[in-house]
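Module 6 notes. Inverse folding takes a fixed backbone as the condition and produces residue identities as the prediction. Think of it as a translation problem where the source language is geometry and the target language is the twenty amino acids. Below is one complete input and output pair. Work through it position by position during the lab.
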């Protein structure tokens, strides 16, 4: 933890970057719990509440690939500041609408879609900017700090949002708007260049296709992307399935509600210890983490009782950050800076492709076969993830032994791809 704290204390640019994102992550988690409550208050319809979240997600995913290409073309600092200011306006408008009384859900839909669209260009710019603020040997610590920030916001935000919403419905959205304003100020004060502004004479569609080829022509990135898609599907389904399964075991509602706290606390703890685990050997950390995730899911399949479920949730929550941090740190070593936003957008889109259907699939499995077989299927999917990590591209990239000829340096990868641009 000392090295992580020193990174925040001694590196002013990274500290401004990190605190800006910490503020907006907290504001987003505050709004995330309040927006469905607002829709329910206006319409009384859970369907509308779900439709609003879906509309934002669809807008975000549809725009990901072209937004990634634009993020590589545009100056990243400018993108981040302008998007922060745009979001401040959007959420400030929503706060005003709520304060003065809105009887329609459509303004909320428009704001949600616009938020998704601007997020599609902000997120890859954010990911690509990180490497300009730290030394290469600090990547794992920085990614770990970013994960800790996200999990802490998930732990604090919903409770804070619920309390603020009870005071006045407009307050949480005003708070979110203020966090984006503060983030814009902090980003503007960063003195280091954040990259971007890569001139391109190609059509946007050609740049998008270039980014897709860049990811899928490299064995490590291709394997990691497919691994992420399977892992995200299986873990999302596993977490979702805990609620109906525990409900079927006549577990009290407060206990079920506390499960989200268990997951967030476990994830926060995992993100804090992950740098030390990864430093001891990233390949061993990923393989061992995959075995733990598959093993605890199999334990739930074999013994679907409350103590096993609680232990499984805690271990799943704690292990996920280790896997994410180890793999993400390697991506920064492999991907050329001029391609970072496009690569990030492509990998995120494919990695989350099956996420929306994971809940539907798990619901069907539980209804059709019950908890044991359902979690057995998920354990099989997670075992497949372990096989992906045993594949040669992952082993060669993460292993401390000299990389095989199939794994090349960042500059070599970048120079080859840039000849095609």
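Target side of the pair, the amino acids:
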């Amino acid at each position: 933890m000392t090295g992580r704290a020193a990174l925040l204390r001694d590196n002013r640019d990274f500290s401004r970057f990190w605190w800006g994102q910490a503020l907006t992550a907290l504001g987003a988690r505050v709004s995330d719990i309040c927006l469905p409550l607002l829709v329910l208050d206006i319409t009384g319809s859970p369907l509308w509440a779900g439709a609003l979240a879906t509309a934002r997600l669809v807008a975000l995913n549809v725009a990901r690939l072209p937004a990634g290409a634009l993020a590589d073309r545009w100056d990243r600092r400018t993108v981040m500041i302008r998007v922060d200011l745009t979001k401040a306006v959007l959420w400030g408008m929503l706060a005003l609408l709520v304060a003065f009384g809105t009887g329609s859900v459509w303004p909320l839909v428009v704001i949600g879609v616009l938020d998704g669209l601007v997020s599609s260009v902000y997120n890859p710019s954010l990911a690509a900017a990180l490497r300009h603020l730290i030394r290469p040997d600090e990547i794992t610590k920085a990614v770990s700090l970013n994960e800790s920030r996200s999990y802490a916001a998930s732990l604090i935000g919903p409770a804070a949002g619920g309390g603020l919403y009870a005071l006045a419905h407009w307050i949480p959205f005003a708070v979110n708007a203020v966090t984006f304003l503060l983030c814009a100020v902090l980003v503007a004060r960063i003195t280091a260049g954040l990259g971007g502004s890569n001139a391109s004479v190609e059509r946007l569609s050609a740049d998008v296709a270039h980014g897709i080829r860049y990811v899928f022509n490299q064995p490590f990135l291709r394997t990691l992307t497919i691994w992420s898609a399977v892992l995200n599907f299986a873990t999302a389904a596993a977490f979702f399935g805990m609620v109906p399964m525990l409900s079927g075991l006549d577990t009290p509602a407060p206990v079920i509600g506390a499960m989200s706290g268990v997951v967030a606390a476990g994830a926060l703890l995992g993100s804090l210890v992950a740098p030390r685990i990864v430093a001891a050997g990233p390949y061993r950390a990923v393989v061992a983490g995959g075995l733990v995730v598959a093993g605890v899911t199999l334990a739930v399949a074999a013994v679907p009782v409350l103590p096993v479920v609680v232990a499984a949730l805690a271990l799943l929550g704690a292990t996920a950050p280790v896997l994410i941090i180890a793999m993400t740190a390697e991506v920064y070593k492999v991907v050329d800076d001029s391609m970072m936003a496009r690569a990030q957008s492509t990998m995120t889109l494919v990695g989350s492709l099956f996420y929306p259907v994971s809940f539907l699939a798990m619901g069907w499995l539980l209804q059709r076969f019950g908890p044991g077989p359902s979690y057995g299927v998920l354990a099989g999917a997670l075992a497949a993830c372990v096989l992906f990590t045993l594949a040669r591209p992952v082993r060669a990239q993460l292993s401390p032994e000299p990389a095989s000829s199939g794994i090349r340096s960042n500059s070599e990868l970048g120079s080859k791809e840039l000849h095609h641009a």
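Reference fact for the lab report: The chain has a mean pLDDT of 86.
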